């Protein structure tokens, strides 16, 4: 009898689980791939040479120039974007070329980001990066690819702006999309927002791990770094997170905190930055998985330098009915000065305007801290300890 009851419960739970998957649209992509579709036509806009020759790129973008690379009328879903350009990143900063996407005839973008960070290339660097919806592939991360579904009902437009101060000599791209008479029910609009902030240490200093002063708790999320803030109904689906740390101290004690549907206090609170990104114990190694990873890690002293981590909430979106504010501490209780940037990705039931984008000056790259800077720090420390000739570096009570 117990076996029969257990089997009935197993079947019941399985049916409930399948029903939930069907309702939330989280069923398996490979399962969906086998289903026959009707009324869908493949379309493409690309930089192909209209003469049939081999100059398959747009003519040079001058500094300050804006150019619409794709303008689509009607109803459909963008399902694939690929971009590459020249010159290479050491000469042309991907951090100063802006990509914007406009849905349904709106005059405001619902996607706005430097093109490098959007596709998983932090700063002005290039490196191979692999995730389920986004990738930067060979050669050396210069092939930028998106597989995010981007629905629209009344047209779509993709714009590129060159803020680099240098000429984009060649710009290659594909924009593939499905054309259809009507979107499936409840299709949201894709959004992506880039934010950047040079965070501020506490008045008492950078007290991480209690090395230089007492640490205090943070229960309200005040002064947290904000990576998404929007009003409306939708669900958060991912983040690329870029950290430039000016100290050898571990930067990742900060917890993620989520304020959903107008909450004054966060209802979702994490246990550390590395934990939020599904890693552990202050890692410094490259790792890639479809849903999370670290394609670029600092290789300097301690945790000094640049790190890029990502997480996509493919099977576990964060839902909101009226608003969401996603934040993360910069060090425990926001005690560290860090150069932080992020691109958040989400869907809403309608295309909405984004918060103001950081300016070129605000997102300017910070220089690397090196051994010369450390020696100057040591010199200042020696003098603060009386400049005794045998000071080693570990003395704390003198």
TrEMBL record:
Keywords: Signal
Coiled-coil stretches: none
Entry keyword Signal: yes
Endpoints of the signal sequence: 1-22
Domain of life: Bacteria
Cross-referenced Pfam families: DUF2961
Keyword Signal tagged: yes
Region (Disordered): 42-61
The protein's name: DUF2961 domain-containing protein
């Amino acid at each position: 009898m117990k076996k029969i009851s257990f089997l009935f419960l197993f079947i019941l739970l399985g049916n409930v689980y399948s029903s939930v998957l069907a309702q939330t649209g989280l069923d398996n992509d490979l399962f969906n791939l086998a289903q026959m579709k009707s009324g869908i036509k493949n379309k493409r806009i690309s930089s192909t040479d209209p003469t049939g020759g081999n100059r398959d790129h747009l003519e040079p973008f001058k500094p300050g120039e804006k150019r619409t690379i794709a303008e689509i009328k009607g109803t459909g879903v963008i399902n694939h974007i690929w971009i590459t350009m020249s010159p290479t990143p050491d000469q042309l900063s991907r951090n100063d070329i802006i990509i914007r996407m406009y849905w349904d005839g709106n005059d405001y973008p619902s996607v706005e980001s430097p093109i490098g960070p959007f596709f998983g290339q932090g700063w002005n660097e290039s490196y191979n990066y692999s995730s389920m919806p986004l990738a930067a592939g060979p050669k050396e991360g210069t092939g930028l690819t998106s597989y995010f579904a981007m629905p629209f009902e009344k047209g779509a437009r993709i714009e590129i702006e060159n803020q680099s101060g240098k000429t984009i000599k060649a710009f290659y791209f594909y924009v593939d999309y499905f054309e259809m008479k009507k979107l499936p029910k409840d299709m949201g609009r894709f959004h992506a927002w880039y934010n950047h902030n040079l965070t501020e240490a506490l008045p008492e200093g950078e007290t991480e791990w209690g090395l230089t002063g007492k640490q205090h708790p943070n229960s309200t999320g005040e002064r947290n770094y904000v990576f998404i803030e929007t009003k409306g109904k939708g669900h958060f689906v991912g983040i690329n997170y870029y950290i430039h740390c000016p100290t050898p101290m571990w930067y990742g004690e900060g917890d993620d905190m989520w304020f959903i549907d107008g909450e004054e206090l966060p209802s979702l609170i994490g246990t550390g930055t590395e934990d939020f990104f599904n890693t552990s114990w202050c890692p410094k190694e490259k790792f890639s998985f479809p849903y999370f990873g670290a394609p670029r890690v600092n290789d300097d002293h301690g945790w000094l330098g640049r790190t890029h981590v990502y997480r996509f909430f493919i099977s576990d979106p964060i839902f909101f009915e009226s608003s969401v504010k996603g934040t993360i501490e910069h060090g425990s209780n926001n005690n560290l000065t860090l150069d932080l940037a992020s691109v958040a990705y989400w869907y809403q039931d309608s295309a909405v305007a984004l918060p103001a984008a950081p300016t070129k000056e605000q997102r300017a790259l910070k220089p690397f801290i090196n051994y010369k800077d450390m020696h100057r720090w040591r010199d200042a420390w020696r003098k603060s300890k009386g400049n005794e000739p045998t000071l080693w570096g570990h003395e704390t009570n003198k």
